[in-house]
Amino acid sequence: MKSRTIADLLSKENTLQDVEIKGWVRTFRANRFIALNDGSTINNIQCVVDFENTEETTLKRITTGAAVHIKGTLTESQGKGQSVEIHVKSIEILGDSDPETFPIQPKKHSFEFLRENAHLRTRTNTFSAVMRLRSSLSFAIHKYFNENGFYYMHTPIITGSDAEGAGEMFRVSNLDAKNPPLDEAGNVNYKEDFFGKETNLTVSGQLEAETFAMSLGKVYTFGPTFRAENSNTSRHLAEFWMIEPEVAFMDLAGNMDLAEDFMKSVLSYILEHNREDLEFLESRLLDEEKTKPQAERSEMSLIEKIKFVVDNNFKRVSYTEAIDILRDCKPNKKKKFKYIIEEWGADLQSEHERYLVEKHFNCPVILFDYPANIKAFYMRLNEDGKTVRAMDILFPGIGEMVGGSQREERLDVLKEKMKALDIDEEELWWYLDLRKYGTAVHSGFGLGFERLVMFATGMGNIRDVIPFPRTPQNAEF
Ligand code: 4AD
Ligand code: MG
Question: Which domain of life is it from (predicted)?
Fold first, then answer.
């Protein structure tokens, strides 16, 4: 007799055999029915206890949250909604769970409460489903790149460069806090941070990924990135995971094709492999929708939304076209935008992005050719001298999912741009070398993994799709 997972037991027609299972009690009803879960599936298996032949002391220890080891016979179930159940022959309590203090009771908890108990929240259906989907999406991402000839590269976490030039970095320092080195003016000399170099946590692996693209051709990174922005929104984290492909000899049009194909592929993967979790999350969302006024309810269910993205082309729109749409529109009859777009060159706020994807086009939108002065220094300048080959992919319900570009491959143009932005050439001498030795057209993008998980699970807050969220409020775990 071999120990099996609940997913395995529920997926096969193998009744009337002895089985052995370990898991956590979700509920125990009428001194007889245990709903057991082991994390392998959203579904519990019902274990029927022969209470007359089980000691009273053991029965008392079968409480929500307890870890148990059950031996019994797998039998066809008479109960509704389950094909099989286990008739328990023996039960061992591996770990007690005090019902008075165990925070995860069999009832609806608020997501705020569960965030404070992030170490236990994956004992709930919602969070276990989200984490299984997160895992599946990670696998699908590696699978996609592997099958398409990309190499997986690890880029540094501690780095001396600010890839985005936005200054949103966490300093990394091994300075002696009690006795820090001082500069001539008597201030702490942070230039000594990391054995004599000023360093920070990476905001993006892109610049290093470019070095690999310029030798291995097609590469990607998938790792943690850090942003010291104090944004308390439902879409920002201080620590998040980013997927960044980078490809030599590929232009912006190729970059858009790659991003679209990639996203469709990983989303199809979960439609095929994570059906039960998606159906569970979909029904959770339907319940939530019922509490809203009719006009605000979503027309599509979670699975329909994912299918829609997989089956339809993303709309490709230039920044200039988008501005024309936004300039003379009102999001609804009464209310205008908080920030009115008056002029070409203005940066889009999330309300504008949402209007474009959710009201105007009603599908994912790839916005491209942005004004140079609102985008990062490394983007390829267009022939018009004022726009760059940038692209952002906007998703309904999420906003910006992807940011990418064709990179500036011309040494002189790049140097000029850096000078205008006061970026020290010496800091990025190695990056400039790529333009000196065998430069070529190349492009890539960054996809915020948690935003993809939000879309795929329908979760409304980014803090609920990462195991331990790092935000200005959440850092104790
Ligand atoms: O648009 P961003 O800043 O682009 C870059 O970092 C480029 N170097 C990527 C590249 O071309 N290789 O970030 C890329 C994506 C965003 O579109 C968003 O999905 C996500 O990363 N992102 C965040 N996700 C969660 N929390 C934050 N604070 C995020 N900041 C960006
Ligand atoms: Mg961006």
Answer: Bacteria
Place of tokens 């983007």: 379
* Ion ligand 2: residues, CB < 5 A: 403
Q: For the chain, give the longest Cα–Cα distance.
A: 85
Name 293's Cβ contacts closer than 8 Å, sequence gap at least 6: none
Q: Compute the distance between CA of residue 61 and CA of residue 57 in angstroms, rounded to an integer.
A: 7
Give me the number of domains the chain comprises: 2
For residues 166 and 202, the answer to whether their CB atoms sit within 8 Å is: no
- What SS3 class is residue 381? strand
Averaged over successive runs of 10 residues, the pLDDT of the chain (477 residues) comes to 82 80 97 97 96 94 98 89 91 97 93 94 97 98 98 95 82 84 86 80 97 98 92 91 98 98 98 98 94 89 97 97 86 70 88 92 97 96 98 96 98 97 93 98 98 98 95 76
Residues 6 or more apart whose CB falls under 8 angstroms from that of 97 comprise 24, 25, 63, 64, 65, 66, 67
Within a domain: 398: yes
Which residue carries 């298996």 as its tokens?
Answer: 45
Q: Which ligand ends up closest to the CA of 235?
A: 1
Q: What is the distance in A from the centroid of ligand 2 to the CA of 447?
A: 9
Atom of ligand 1 nearest to the CA of 238: 28
Would you say the ipTM is above 0.90?
yes
Q: Is residue 345 domain-shared with residue 266, that is, in the same domain?
A: yes
Q: Which domain holds residue 75?
A: 6-102
Residues in CB range of 131: below 8 A, 6 or more apart: 122, 467
CA of 254 to the centre of ligand 2 (A): 19
Local structure of residue 36 (DSSP, 8 states): E
Which DSSP category does 313 fall into?
P
Residue whose CA is closest, atom 20 of ligand 1? 448
> Would you give the distance in Å from CA 119 to the centre of its chain?
19
